[in-house]
Design a protein that fits this description.
This protein is of the alpha+beta class and about 350 residues long. Helices cover about 25% and strands about 30% of the residues. It has 2 domains: about 180 residues, Double-stranded beta-helix (4-Layer Sandwich), CATH 3.60.130; about 140 residues, 4-Layer Sandwich (Double-stranded beta-helix).
Length: about 350
């Protein structure tokens, strides 16, 4: 792997970003934080506008015109950061998401507290700014998950608040090389996720979504039906509910790229699913109920950090992620920061 960080001077603006290739509407640029793998494109791919415009309409038209090109580049790179485009509002972001033509994915069964902003746009995880959100594939703990994620920086952070991303097949390869027996156990038994949910949301917790908003109902019988469709078991404890999900695969095979991916929320659950109701060490186990070895989980976290890319947010940035290929996280930050999200089938 080639480390590009020593090849280019540190920069905080577009002036030192280096054009790589161009299309009719987009210029590919290179910045120090990206990684380069010998068999892949730069990660993530970064595109800036190859046109002059003071409105979002030209960007939206370009997406519609070059949709197949953009989807092909997303498939090869795993993530695309759109930077320097004239976007300022959640409505404009919603229009961009719509322009790609992906079906909307309903957020049923996820753990993060979110609220709808406009159309298909929601807030990202609303947990307090001092809390990190560990690496995970979106909704990897349930059988039905989005295939693509959009993030939009409406207000860039005062400090910190990056959304680090990492290629999942790289993590699989590193873990299999370093901990082959553990990976074999994961492939044989999968994982079990266990969580306690209150009736209402707890915005102070990174997993504080209550059962009513998790299942989009205040009817216990409907909640049970929707949980059953996910393969999830519910145990009612007065106003709380215990959710048991699994065994569910921790390693998946990406048919489109013909490779295995580290598709799970193991590190996120074991190190981050903590509040007054939940003990993170008990939140995830092997699929047969055996506890996970802490040293290996934390070594996986170390590998995730080492292989990740964290690009500071700029106002107007849009990050498009292939959820099959890429894990993401969130660093702590000093407010203000407002990053919005949209999930797609």
């Amino acid at each position: 792997m080639l480390n590009l960080g020593n090849q280019f001077p540190s920069t905080k603006n577009l002036l030192n970003q280096i054009p790589i290739t161009m299309s009719e509407s987009f210029t590919e640029i290179q910045i120090p934080q990206q990684k380069h793998y010998s068999y892949s494109t730069l990660f993530p791919l970064i595109l800036t506008p190859n046109f002059n415009s003071s409105s979002s309409s030209s960007f939206i038209d370009s997406i519609k015109t070059h949709k197949h090109y953009l989807q092909s580049r997303l498939h090869s790179s795993g993530a695309i950061l759109f930077r320097g485009f004239p976007l300022t509002t959640p409505t404009e972001f919603n229009d961009v998401v719509e322009a790609f033509g992906f079906d909307e994915f309903p957020y049923v069964g996820g753990a993060a507290p979110r609220s709808n902003v406009v159309g298909r746009v929601f807030t990202a995880n609303e947990s307090p700014p001092d809390q990190k959100i560990p690496f995970h594939h979106e909704m990897a703990q349930v059988p039905e998950f989005p295939s693509k994620l959009f993030f939009f920086c409406e207000v860039e952070p005062k400090k910190g608040g990056e959304t680090p991303i990492v290629l999942s097949h790289i993590i699989y390869e590193k873990m299999k090389e370093k901990h082959p027996d553990f990976v074999q156990q994961l492939e044989e038994h999968g994982l079990m996720y266990i969580r306690l949910l209150d009736e209402g949301d707890n915005p102070a917790s990174p997993i504080g979504r209550g059962w009513k908003s998790t299942f989009l109902t205040d009817d216990k019988s409907i909640a049970e039906q929707r949980a059953a469709k996910l393969g999830m078991k519910l145990e009612w404890l007065e106003n709380r509910v215990k959710t048991i999900m699994g065994p569910i695969p921790a390693i998946k095979f990406d048919e489109s790229k013909q490779r295995k991916v580290w598709f799970n929320s193991m590190v996120a659950a074991y190190t981050g699913w903590e509040d007054e109701l939940n003990d993170p060490v008990k939140a995830v186990t092997f699929g047969d109920g055996r506890p996970l070895p802490a040293d290996i989980v934390y070594d996986c976290l170390k590998i995730l950090e080492e292989e990740s890319v964290a690009i500071p947010w700029k106002q107007g940035d849009i990050l498009l992620i292939d959820n099959w290929a890429v894990l993401h996280s969130r660093r702590s930050f000093d407010p203000p920061r407002r990053v919005l999200a949209s999930l797609c089938k």
